Amino acid sequence: MTPGPTNVPSLVRDAISKPMIHHRTPEFKNIFSELTENLKYVFKTKNDVLILTSSGTGGMEAAVCNFFSSSDKVIVCNNGKFGERFVEICKRYGLDVIELKYELGEAAKPSDIKNNLDSEIKGVFVTQSETSTGICNDIKEIGNIVKKTNALLIVDSISALGSVDMRTDDWGVDVVIAASQKALMGPPGLCFISVSEKAWEAYKKSNLPKYYFDLGKYKKKSQENETPYTPAISLIIGMNESLKIIREVGIDNFLKKHEKISEKLRRGLIEIGFEIFPRSGLKNNGLTVVKSLPGIDSSVIINAVKEHGYVIANGQEELKGKVFRIATMGDVEEKDIDKMLDILKTIVKKFA
Ligand SMILES: *Cc1c(COP(=O)(O)O)cnc(C)c1O
């Protein structure tokens, strides 16, 4: 129950271990086409959804180097480690970054974006679920602000998509980035990125260097259900099975399951005496970040949980030792929550 890589269902594992097929064959093209359609369904979009062989960070880099030009002014919301990564990538490509930096555990304030969004701003970067703190930003509200302007809205939904609702088209999100190893229940190695018409217009003007991540090439090839370079074929076959599972359940039912189990987890944790780390933002149905017990390093709790057969994650950087992170994304069931709460109850008793 870590925030990625998550559990991979056996159906998906079986699909990945099948004999290799070639990627310029009708057999592969059918799978690629089906996966692309099902991704659009999960992204809730009619925009292009492109499949990259890279981890999520590759998609973040692609979102910067494809749609902007040197010295473009952009707003980046920084709520933690992953918002900070967007700041770093934008700066590396020479963009002029207005950083909205929040205290750890605080969500972005849409009014801050509104106040900084003058006609010179070319893009707004937001992390939907900030995996380092557990906060969940309100993309709908931010979308309402940004879609009235010429700026692009770029959302890192890598740990959110599939566990937190993302309505790409309804909310006016130009670029959404997701990855295989979080709520979408695949192994690491694939990244998915949706691109709106407004973003493709910006692509035409972009002067930043790009080669492997030149999304125009992926768009052109995806019209023939192919990729420009050899993709991670096995992972694509596996992801197709995973997306078929989600489609069969229905994305909204899948999201409801996450809402139900994460609410149960949060309630149970508070009953035991734990405190939830995020202080603002929306409920995060994919990830719960919890403060450790007073005077106890969170690694002690994490190791004790591991003895019972469950893996949860520590905090990162300055939150290391202070919090632990329990993911409810992907293939997690109510029985896992019951078990986790029982385990934590036993551990708390030991320290009381
Ligand atoms: C996991 C994650 C990433 C990307 O991580 P990779 O290791 O490159 O896949 C980016 N943003 C968020 C919010 C994440 O949770």
Secondary structure layout plus pairing:
Layout: H1 10-16, H2 26-43, E1 48-53, H3 56-65, E2 73-78, H4 81-92, E3 96-101, H5 110-116, E4 121-127, H6 139-146, E5 152-156, E6 175-179, E7 190-195, H7 197-205, H8 215-222, H9 233-249, H10 251-272, E8 287-291, H11 298-307, E9 313-314, E10 323-327, H12 334-351
Parallel strand pairs: 2-3, 2-4, 4-5, 5-6
Antiparallel strand pairs: 1-7, 6-7, 8-10, 9-10
Helix pairs in contact: 1-9, 2-9, 3-4, 9-10, 10-12
Describe the overall structure.
Helix 10 (251-272) runs parallel beside helix 12 (334-351). The protein has twelve helices and ten strands. The protein is globular, with a radius of gyration of 20 Å. Helix content is 41%, strand content 15%. The two termini are 25 Å apart. By secondary structure, it is of the alpha/beta class. The strands form two sheets. It has a seven-stranded mixed β-sheet with strand order 1-7-6-5-4-2-3, sandwiched between helices. A three-stranded antiparallel β-sheet has the order 8-10-9. The model has no long low-confidence stretch (mean pLDDT 97). It has two domains: 10-249, Type I PLP-dependent aspartate aminotransferase-like (Major domain) (Aspartate Aminotransferase, domain 2, 3-Layer(aba) Sandwich); 251-351, Alpha-Beta Complex (Aspartate Aminotransferase, domain 1). The chain has helices at 10-16, 26-43, 56-65, 81-92, 110-116, 139-146, 197-205, 215-222, 233-249, 251-272, 298-307, 334-351; strands at residues 48-53, 73-78, 96-101, 121-127, 152-156, 175-179, 190-195, 287-291, 313-314, 323-327. The protein binds pyridoxal-5'-phosphate (PLP).
